[in-house]
Amino acid sequence: MRKRFGTMLPDICRSLFRRPATGDYPFVAAVTPERLRGRLEWDPAACTGCGLCAMDCPASALAVAVLDRKARRFVLQYHLDRCIFCGQCVVSCRQGCLRMTGTPWELAALTRETFVTYFGDPTDVEQVLAVKPEEDPGTPG
């Protein structure tokens, strides 16, 4: 037992006089990395409602509801809690209407409902929610 304590003593002494390796995160904001893949953003003007983004998403984090293709009325449902931030939806989108932003990168919440985002006109979103109640196949029983 003495031999172990003797080998730890120099490390303990160094730790007493050295600054901690961790930062003061909640009090000092960390710098956002330049190429961070964060939350998804959608440009409804460029979207054609093809649904390639939802088909190619490996985590099933996207769903596209087409209300009227000629009038370009689409609703994009985005589950942030399922997203693995791979960027496959951005690569698959032929119209370039999806991009991943690193601006709001602190993604924490107390409830799961805050992680579901509906992109589109608010009246269209209400119409989609009224027709189909929100089902979450990822949640057990």
Can you put this structure into words, describing what you see?
With 141 residues, the chain is an alpha+beta fold. It has a domain at 34-131: Alpha-Beta Plaits (2-Layer Sandwich). 25% of the residues lie in helices and 17% in strands. The protein has helices spanning 2-16, 52-56, 88-92, 122-131, and strands at 40-42, 62-68, 73-79, 98-100, 116-119. The strands form 2 sheets. Strands 2-3-5 form a 3-stranded antiparallel sheet. Strands 1-4 form a two-stranded antiparallel ribbon. β2 and β3 form a beta hairpin. The radius of gyration is 23 Å and the shape is elongated. The model is unreliable at 137-141 (pLDDT under 50).
What structural category characterises the helix and strand content? alpha+beta
Order of helices and strands: HEHEEHEEH
Task: Tell me which oligomeric state these chains represent.
Answer: single chain
| CATH class descriptor name of the domain at 34-131 | Alpha Beta
Q: Based on the structure given, which CATH architecture of the domain at 34-131 is correct?
A: 2-Layer Sandwich
Features:
3-stranded antiparallel β-sheet, 25% helix, alpha+beta, 4 helices, two-stranded antiparallel sheet, 141 residues
In short:
This protein is α+β, with helices and mostly antiparallel strands and 141 residues long.
What's the structural blueprint in terms of helices and strands?
Layout (H helix, E strand, L loop, with lengths): L1 H15 L23 E3 L9 H5 L5 E7 L4 E7 L8 H5 L5 E3 L15 E4 L2 H10 L10
Antiparallel strand pairs: 1-4, 2-3, 3-5
